[in-house]
């Protein structure tokens, strides 16, 4: 077939990127490499997180039970630090600083006004180098409603607390919380006004984005061999299932009046988290982008977890004062978040790449945050796990508080992005 690897199934206001297919690959085709960051707040229960043993001879901590099937893809990293999340004379505001410094390694200016200043984040360094190779340079997601202005933590702007991704010292990349809008961004075509028009048209006609590309889809399926045909059907089925989940979430929130429907953010937190993970997997599978950040919840978040029977707020519990009851509940929250990370790994592992490997094999996903123990607010020995196509199946224990940005430089190098410095880096950690 004389078609491009980037072939899109086009229809009215729709451009569906295809998964890797053998018929669309050139003999020298290589799978793209990808990078994602998942942020979780308020530190962790240290005893549940810490592995036993070092190197390949290690056992995962209790928190890692949901991701145990992917142990050979995991590198649990102990000993990295983000020192610029410390006060450094600025007083309170550890959560805002931790969120701002996590992917930048920079000390944010303490201000609640417009004169914010931080540093470029690792994902945006990658996006500025390889983002032109995909339809979307990067994808920024958050699993909660956000605040764009005002003070959120001891005089620090909300911009620090709700954004992991920074394009420059003064420009955060706002994260999207609505899975419907993310879906439209990934699979709608044309300028925003046109995408909005066709979305409303689909709503009125109760049609899927797939219906608008039905002609090209059927023609392509007829030309594919058995393996490619099965792969395409599997991909389209998964795409439609994500769309159905979003539709169900919308229907649950539709008011019984003539008022406009509210945003399509599921009320169920677990559903919201998993939808966002599904969308990252779809974006990577279709090579719509190769860079993504997902903030499960902002630092200092105090939501309760009624889903798992916890009425107290997470931030409140994180100041556990070593009380067994608080630590047990923190461990359950840690496990809940790890279950959603496992869902992301499952989706990435199930998707086949153009080289025959899984998308997970060609992706580096860093999960964690810039606070170690929520009670101490420490920013060293951070809870981090690197999943994907690196030297998995090991526990790396470092001494001396190595800057986390050294790891970021190593991750960038794996994507072919060469950079000598980032934030407070002192060198490149490339033992990945």
Quickly describe the structure.
This protein has 432 residues and is α/β, with parallel strands linked by helices.
Description of the structure:
With 432 residues, this protein is of the alpha/beta class. It has two domains: 1-19 and 190-264; 31-177 and 266-414, Alkaline Phosphatase, subunit A (3-Layer(aba) Sandwich). It has twelve helices and 13 strands. The chain has helices at 46-49, 94-101, 122-130, 158-161, 179-187, 192-205, 214-223, 226-253, 269-285, 314-318, 324-350, 404-414; strands at residues 8-11, 14-17, 34-39, 74-81, 139-142, 151-153, 156-157, 291-295, 304-305, 310-313, 363-368, 384-388, 394-403. The strands form four sheets. The chain has a seven-stranded mixed sheet with strand order 5-8-3-11-12-4-13, with helices on both faces. β9 and β10 form a beta hairpin. α5 (179-187) runs parallel beside α9 (269-285), α8 packs antiparallel against α9 (269-285) and α9 runs parallel beside α11 (324-350). It is globular, with a radius of gyration of 22 Å. The relative contact order is 0.22. The model is unreliable at 1-6 and 254-262 (pLDDT under 50).
* Secondary structure: number of strands: 13
Order of strands across the main sheet? 5-8-3-11-12-4-13
What is the residue-mean pLDDT, rounded to a whole number? 88
Total DSSP helices: 12
CATH class of the largest domain: Alpha Beta
Corresponding CATH architecture of the largest domain: 3-Layer(aba) Sandwich
Lay out the secondary structure.
Layout: E1 8-11, E2 14-17, E3 34-39, H1 46-49, E4 74-81, H2 94-101, H3 122-130, E5 139-142, E6 151-153, E7 156-157, H4 158-161, H5 179-187, H6 192-205, H7 214-223, H8 226-253, H9 269-285, E8 291-295, E9 304-305, E10 310-313, H10 314-318, H11 324-350, E11 363-368, E12 384-388, E13 394-403, H12 404-414
Parallel strand pairs: 3-8, 3-11, 4-13, 5-8
Antiparallel strand pairs: 1-2, 4-12, 6-7, 9-10, 11-12
Helix pairs in contact: 5-9, 8-9, 9-11
